[in-house]
Amino acid sequence: MHKDPDLTQQETHFAFGKNWASYxxxxxxxxxEQARRGLARLLGDDLRNKRFVDVGxxxxxxxxxxxxxxxxxxxxxDIDPDSVATTRTLLETYAGGxxxxxxxxxxxxxxxxxxGDFDVAYSWGVLHHTGDMDRAVRCAAKLVRPGGxxxxxxxxxxxxxxxxKAEKKWYTAADTQAQKRAERMYIEAFRAGLAVTGxxxxxxxxxxxxxxxxxFYHDVRDWLGGWPYESVTAQDVDRLMEPLGxxxxxxxxxxxxxxxxxxxxxxxxxxxxxTGPAK
Length: 279
Description:
- By secondary structure, this protein is of the alpha/beta class.
- The protein has 2 domains: 10-158 and 228-273, Vaccinia Virus protein VP39 (Rossmann fold); 161-224, no CATH class.
- It is built from 11 helices and 7 strands.
- It has helices at 16-24, 29-43, 61-68, 81-94, 112-115, 133-141, 161-173, 176-196, 201-206, 216-224, 234-241, and strands spanning 51-55, 73-78, 100-104, 118-124, 144-155, 246-252, 266-273.
């Protein structure tokens, strides 16, 4: 009998870590400042006396940003060994004297007894790629101590989510040449979409920014290859978080269902834990 692959295992995922490693080679002051601004918008610009965990650390730029905002200790976690290696290199280079560690681990297998609890848990654009988003959110939420905050970004539900789910599954299994053709097709379609509104791709790329600091072309590959893939409405995130003892304190994004023709944006959420971890 055929058995479906376990989407919670790293070998079924798009190689996010290789894309992050390529991006991190160009990280400098501009990317770090952008990451700092993104963190400060969610959590304030002073993380002094706070333990900070980055679940799905990617390039490590937000772990570095948290340290630069004063976090007492930063723990970075990722299921992809390339991301862990990239994060370690970045932090060794720019934060050698700070208290940090980087761990190769799945969110589903975190050792809470070893890690301890945190004042801030941060997971931007990660938990919807785990293969079981709801369980991943619950696992990450357990790391937050009472009175602490959980900042996360999750794909907003759109009318085209099923189409993108099929595309991402295909892209992740495709060979390199097929992936590059898909990237070119997407970019040309995006160029045409900009032209309809009187904009140019060149100017768009030059001014491109997202909350993770990634550039446009790395972000295209990250988007097309983002498998596994799930999306969620803001109301459903609230319904997931409230029984865990969290109340939403702020949100950036849109509450309703979007269109999603060229992609799906993330809603950003910040929740505060009122009570102890759910058992």
